[in-house]
Input
Amino acid sequence: MTAMNSGIQTFDIIVICLYLAIVAIIGSFSGGKQRSVKDYFLGGSNVPWWAVSFAIVAAETSTLTFISIPGLAYIANLNFLQVTVGYLIGRIVVSILFLPAYKKGELSTAYALLENRFGQTTRRYASIVFLFTRVAADGVRLFATSIPLALIFRSVSLFEGFSTVQIYAFSIVIITIVTLIYTYTGGVKGIIWVDVLQMAIYIGGALMALVILFQKVPGGLSAVSQYSSDINKFSLINVTFNGFFSEPYTLFGSLIGGCLLSMASHGTDQLIVQRLLTTKSLKDSQKALITSGVVVIFQFTLFLLVGLMLYAFFQGAAIGAESTPFTKPDEIFPFFIIYYLPTGIRGLIIAGLFAAAMSTLAGSMSSLSSSTMIDLYQPIFGKGNTDEKDLHVSRFLTIIWGVVLTIVAFLFIRILQSVVEIALGISSITYGGLLGTFLLGVLFKKTNQTSALWGFSAGILCMVLLIIIPFLFGLKPIVHWTWYVLIGASTTIIIGNIASYVQNRK
Output
């Protein structure tokens, strides 16, 4: 292990500031001039499929992913890659099952499909559930971004005397302001082109870190086994059946869980569906979605290899030990970035941390405002509005949701790490119900709006009991997260069909 350096330098800060300024400028101008809600939220439906593909990957990659996956490989092995194969399978299913319905009807949000099949009430219900879920989940992701950034800022003399809470708040505000600038002015097209840049930055940063690790560790990957005793750090497939539902990252749990999670997030979540609706044709949407699955496998392989090399670099040091400079897995990669990378490269990779955060946040702001505008505001309050007025309202909603996400992130600062894991599982609480409701509409022709609402509500209630109750009572999770969406979707489909059967009998 090489000697530590002195941490963040002035040149690193200049690189980071320049990057943030460039992102704001590119996002603002690349969106073009918007004249209507369709231009603002759908980019005129003429965005190239490859750009949409990269934007999808960037949107689903948060800062927490950037730092957590290397940390996961450090403490475990490569089993997580099984989940990414499930992600690809799920995208293929969505491309066949859902995308034809989206593109055929020229829909403007994911939940318009539910109105076509069941009715307006189901669409509004799904949209409201999405709004609450996205705010909570991405508010936490925004807060989680401040954890590694706080570690970075603490090494800067400029922040001496600032409390941890103040540093967290500063990180959140900076990220939100820069993201809001280009989201407000550039619309979804500006967001997509910035996401292409963001992905290039954080992938390039991870590649540079990996190359430097190979240079610093004699023997490269072979050195990993030198410090792992009898643990197989390169284990890729886990076929164990012990603790089938509670064991993390078994082969079947990973494939099924990854597939269904991807079906829910990429087939029913406005954050991703909005991007798919910006392409010219169904074929372009399908190419964008499936290609994103391949890219995700490459991306997570890269992050996991960084984690293995960090394990070799720190010679298998135990997390939390007195001689170890980090106390949890999420601190390992940021610590290496700050104290072992050359000046300039360090600044660029920290910019990659910002990039991962801003991609998710921009997508959140746009998807929240588009769902609010198109699913709720226009049908109720905006029937007689001009395109110009609707555009003004859309931009105002973008600001409102940016403020709301910031406030939610602030709420988690005092609570800190204790609820991050359960809060990041918020999406899983509703994904099962959403996916089950979409499947009720596509696969079961006899179900109607009432049975869909019963099934949707039952799926959400089931997941609340399964996830929240054990957490509140300090119990271990009953099942691993990879099974959450399957349980929620199955409950929704079963209850929806039972409700439909009872109605038909009456």
Observations:
- DSSP finds 20 helices and no strands in the chain.
- The chain has two domains: 10-418, 425-506.
